[in-house]
Amino acid sequence: MALIVQKYGGTSVGTVEKIKAVATKVIDSYKKGDRMVVVLSAMAGKTDGLIKLARQVASEPDPREMDVLLATGEQESVALFSMAVKDMGFEAQSMLGFQIAIHTDHIFGRAKINQVETDRILKALDEKKIVAIAGFQGLDEKGDITTLGRGGSDTTAVAIAAAVKADRCEIFKDDVEGIYTTNPDVCPKAKKMDTISYEEMLEMASLGAKVLEIRAVEFAMKYNVPVYVRSTFSDKRGTMVVAETKDMEKVLVSGVAYSKNESRVTIRKVPDRPGIASGIFQPVFESGIVVDMIVQNTSEDGSTDITFTVPKPDFYRTMKLVSQVAQDIGAEKVLGDEDIAKVSIVGVGMRTHAGVANRMFAALAAENINIMMISTSEIKISVVIEAKYLELAVRTLHKTFGLDDETKGE
Amino acid sequence: MALIVQKYGGTSVGTVEKIKAVATKVIDSYKKGDRMVVVLSAMAGKTDGLIKLARQVASEPDPREMDVLLATGEQESVALFSMAVKDMGFEAQSMLGFQIAIHTDHIFGRAKINQVETDRILKALDEKKIVAIAGFQGLDEKGDITTLGRGGSDTTAVAIAAAVKADRCEIFKDDVEGIYTTNPDVCPKAKKMDTISYEEMLEMASLGAKVLEIRAVEFAMKYNVPVYVRSTFSDKRGTMVVAETKDMEKVLVSGVAYSKNESRVTIRKVPDRPGIASGIFQPVFESGIVVDMIVQNTSEDGSTDITFTVPKPDFYRTMKLVSQVAQDIGAEKVLGDEDIAKVSIVGVGMRTHAGVANRMFAALAAENINIMMISTSEIKISVVIEAKYLELAVRTLHKTFGLDDETKGE
């Protein structure tokens, strides 16, 4: 008898019929003897509708009240789902963030889960009930409702699974059947992976392969919760996200990730003295802009070039901030480029295999793709290239590292 | 500086524009220096929409989950209202049933308020905030969400007003400007009253003049909360519902109430022996049928006639139950009549004035309206008549007791 936490997204519970279908699916597992906890998102379109309503009422909706408003979406889903289950003759009970309680910090709209109480959930499970938990919401120390931000229901599911020590956490996806070696839209030969390690998943997720919310993966890794990503609408095998195993290291590269949401800023001839980098980045960090890659060349003639990337929406703000700093410290000039993209190869196998980077660079060179920046970590190599080469680069690397599904056409 | 609790119904907050208008209205009072607590219903149509959704998911929606679902309506209203107030530059904070907390019993769908905590409300008021409270909802001792039933937001408002010792509770109505001497649709010369006592209001409300939820009036009377019923959409003077004053006794009759939702059952020639009434009504009470008037004639020749009224929807069920009992106890026969109506005159002045009943009977007789049943209380006289005479009876009594507004045409 396993204890399973399942999470269904907004499209999976988007209509009355779909809610009933999910209820049937959950009951099927329950009848096999498993203890079932189900985490639900708001019905598809619900959250956007509420946000629209809020914007009509206030030009800048208050964050606290926005969370009170948005939390109704998941409340609606779990109530309807529990009714459906009970109508089918099985016991169910909905639970909201405050009832469980799911304790979070007080950052409205993107709260972090601090602690999940389990008494109420375990009691309901002991009473043979199917437990339906509202995703995305929690309660701060003041008793205010908080929400976890987009994709927060994934995090709720994994946090609940960790707290109740579930045997596994199943994340049902509306649009994909698992995690792919890269985006099938860009590379038709992309393959579904059977397993992926938490670390690889983190690198994939943060690089734009948005299948699983990154905080959910972090939670899963921290508490060693096996996460099974699968399709709501088919019974096909999905992808298990688990702790790294010996076998995984045999694979050099697990996937190719990319991001188009990057822009690049270069400061030329920065006087090379201690503390200069900190002086440049201080105003950028203080503005809340997230700097991704940073590259500093080896110093020549007492000056150095510093290049870094920021999200595209922050590009102009960053240019303005940095131009001022450049003038103050006597740098030569600031160059900017929005027309770039980042491509990364990810794999725990890199730790134990040499020459991966070189194979990557050679493959791109063979296609005449110029590399503008390089950044490496233990299990990831990222390069910045001209945006127009992005798709070609992804397909080239996918093939180079043996990820192509040869049963599929181009 | 007064402490005022205001309640706005669903139509008053039925659109984004109306929510903003209510916010403006509340801010106007706030700017005059009053401390403001606002209780809101769900936006018009919201609750019905949710019930419809529930019925699509389950043939008999679970009561606990229904309350979880319905509570989202008021949650939405208070969040949007608070955003609107903050957007206009004033401080506001929404509060839900569980946050306050409003403690109720555990009867889902028609819970009774047991206790209202005030710490959080008073703290927010001290912080100069406008407090927006979700009507209609509470929390039972298990931590489950409950709702108070239709019209429950009136009760929430009065209960909150009692708990925080508000100077008054203002109930804003969407459809009327106050409480009338009778229904203006039936009697065009109906007048708006300036004041009415709690007792009179209770008799009016329970007799079908559904302006104020009856539990709200009971609460107001119990805690002596002055309730001011007025229009959302005009500044005209409304009606104050207050404890009885000496002045009120000068008025013989305050209003004429009526109900069309009645049916009559008569048991002929019931053997007149102790315990017989109890034997007749036991099965009716056990079926949850609410018996209103009961009349037993003085016994003749060892048998008596018993007549009583029940709501129309319960008529056939009652007839069936009573026919069985009549047979068992050896009564002659059972007669039923659905084609009846009840008309009542209400007024605290009756206590100190004689002859009111006689004036009522005479006025009806003058119009050839036959009286089938009579029932009296300290401040009310009700008669049952043929349904077709209802409107005529109401207008006749309204005129007889000097209630007609002579500035209005027929």
Task: Give your account of this protein's structure.
The structure is a homodimer of 410-residue chains. Chain A has 410 residues and is of the alpha/beta class. The first copy, chain A, has a domain at 3-174: Carbamate kinase (3-Layer(aba) Sandwich). The first copy, chain A, is 35% helix and 25% strand. Chain A has helices at residues 16-31, 46-57, 63-87, 97-100, 119-126, 152-163, 198-206, 214-223, 276-286, 315-329, 356-366, 390-400, and strands at 3-8, 35-40, 92-95, 102-104, 113-116, 130-134, 137-139, 145-147, 168-173, 195-197, 227-231, 239-242, 255-259, 262-271, 294-296, 303-311, 333-337, 340-346, 373-377, 380-386. In chain A, a hairpin with a 2-residue loop joins strand 19 and strand 20 (380-386). The A-B interface holds A 16, 19-20, 50, 53-54, 56-62, 64-66, 68-69, 71-72, 75-76, 78-84, 86-87, 92-94, 96, 98-99, 120, 143-145 and B 16, 19-20, 50, 53-54, 56-62, 64-66, 68-69, 71-72, 75-76, 78-84, 86-87, 92-94, 96, 98-99, 120, 143-145.
Q: Any idea what the CATH superfamily of the domain at 3-174 in chain A is called?
A: Acetylglutamate kinase-like
Global outline of chain A: globular
Low-pLDDT stretches of chain A are none
Alpha plus pi helix count of chain A = 12
Determine the structural class of chain A based on helices, strands and strand pairing: alpha/beta
Rounded to an integer in angstroms, the radius of gyration calculated over CA atoms of chain A is: 24 Å
Oligomeric grouping of the chains: homodimer
The whole-number mean of residue pLDDT values of chain A reads 92
State the share of residues found in helices of chain A, binned by percent: 25-40%
- Main β-sheet of chain A, in a few words? 8 strands, mixed
CATH topology of the domain at 3-174 in chain A: Carbamate kinase
Strand order of the largest sheet of chain A: 3-6-2-1-9-11-12-10
User: What's the level 1 CATH class of the domain at 3-174 in chain A?
Assistant: Alpha Beta
CATH architecture of the domain at 3-174 in chain A: 3-Layer(aba) Sandwich
